[in-house]
Design goal:
mainly alpha; two-stranded antiparallel ribbon; 43% helix
Length: 182
């Protein structure tokens, strides 16, 4: 479709465009105007195509793994206090940092018999959790049961974490190498 300009508009266009003074025929002006309009349409189309590639309503990008690890570490160390049972203690009762979450004798027994009571908290570093996927761990912390449906052995609590917290703890535990306390 050709856009028809009045004489004043054509002169204004010629004065502000790349059209040379010698090339002032109406055909030349119409051709350049058409090219100008096409470039604008192509530019708009590319912009819209780029914007449509992003999900509507997504307010922020997915969290990087470092954030998930930090969240998992915080929950393990400050909320669930996993190290209280799963990290061995030294002679003065302090946690042995080199054996962070590598399992420990609890040093306590129930006053009345409790079926399945675990006297030793297991190693929960990545090396010991090879049979557990991160998904299995997250689900266990979310529903409070092992993948086979059995509850954790006492005194391990049956956690009911929300999905994000459970996933963060699972990712963090699966990232731990024995002796590290990232």
């Amino acid at each position: 479709m050709w856009i028809i300009y009045g004489e004043g508009n054509v002169r204004a266009y010629l004065a502000s465009s790349e059209v040379s003074v010698r090339d002032t025929s109406i055909d030349s002006v119409q051709e350049k105007t058409c090219m100008h309009n096409l470039s604008w349409i192509v530019s708009l189309s590319l912009t819209l195509a780029t914007l449509s590639a992003f999900p509507y309503g997504q307010s922020s990008p997915p969290r990087p793994k470092a954030d998930v690890l930090a969240r998992g570490k915080y929950i393990v160390d400050r909320v669930s206090m996993c190290g209280d049972c799963h990290t061995p203690r030294g002679e003065k009762g302090e946690p042995v940092a080199e054996k962070y979450l590598q399992g420990a004798d609890l040093g306590v027994e129930p006053t009345i018999p409790i079926p399945g009571f675990a006297r030793v908290a297991p190693d929960i570093t990545a090396k010991a959790l090879t049979r557990w996927s991160a998904e299995d761990l997250a689900k266990a912390f979310e529903v409070g049961k092992r993948p086979n449906g059995e509850p954790f052995r006492p005194p391990m609590p049956g956690y009911r974490m929300d999905r994000k917290d459970a996933e963060a703890v699972a990712v963090y535990l699966k990232s731990l190498e024995p002796g590290s306390s990232k």
